[in-house]
Amino acid sequence: MKELVIVSGKGGTGKTSLTAAFSSLAGRHILCDADVDAADLHLLLAPEVSERHEFMGGGKAVIDPERCSRCGQCRDLCRFAAIEGEFSVDPIACEGCGVCVDLCPAGAIDFPIQKCGEWFVSDTRNGSMVHARLGIAEENSGKLVSCVRREARRLAEEQDLEIIITDGPPGIGCPVIAAIGGATALVLVVEPTVSGLHDMSRLVDLARHFRVPCLLCINKFDLNLEMTRRLEDEARERKMQLVGRVPFDPLFTEAMIAARTVIEYQQDSRIAVAVREIWHAIVASPAMNSYGIRTM
Known about the structure:
Distance between the termini: 18 Å
Oligomer: single chain
Strand content: 25-35%
Mean pLDDT: 92
Helix content: 25-40%
C-alpha cells in the first residue's frame, strides 16, 4: 500500500483541486484530507458522513478556587497573560503550556483535556474519505493530522486498498511534518513565481530530512514561462522528477463552482488531459514504485 501526499508552500496553488481530480483517476484508493486547519476537499466531493468521532487534544488550565492560596505565582509565570484578576483562567488566552499546573505550590490548577474538533469517515462518489474539522482557534492540528492519516491507513489495510491519496496542509510547519512522515512520495504543487520557487526549496529540504521523495507539478505554468524554467532547473539540480505542467484555464474555477473535479466536468478538455497525464506520470514514477497500482 502506497501513500501519496499532495503539498504546497502556501494555500491557493490548486493542491486540493488536483487531489480531487486524482481521486477521479485512481483505482482502489482511499482519500485523506490532512489539511485540517482549512479542510475543503469536502466542497468538491460532497461526502456523506458514516462515522463521527470527537478529537480530544491538549488541555487548558483550570484553577480550583477552594485550593488556590492566591500566591500569584501562576500569574507571574504565565507568558500569555491568561490568569485573570480573581485567579481564574481565560480559556482563549491560555495556550495549554502547563507551566502553571506544574509549578503551582498549592497544586490548585487542573489540566483537563479539551475537545478540539471532530474527525469523520465518509463516503464520496470517488470512494471513502477520512477528514476532520478543527475547532475555532484550536491548536494541536499536528495531532489531528496524525489521527486522520492513521485512520485512513487502517481502513486501507482493512479494505485491501492500493493507495492513500492525501491532501496535505500548506507550508512547512507542524501539520505538514505530521502529514509527510512515512509517506511513499510527495507531489509539490508550485506556481511559477519567486515565492513559489522559495516555497519549493523549503519543502524539498523538509522532505529530504524525513527521507520522502518529491515529485514536482507546476500549476499555471504558462503565466510565467521564465519562472517555470527556473523551477524546472531547480528540480533538476535537486534530482526531483517533474511529473507535469498544468496550464492556466478558467475551467478549473468553473469546475470548482460546479463542485466537480476537472475530470468530471470536462474530461476531454486540455486541462483534464494535462491532469490525466500528470497522474499517470506519478503512478509510473520511481518514487511511487507503482507496480500494481491500477488507474482508470
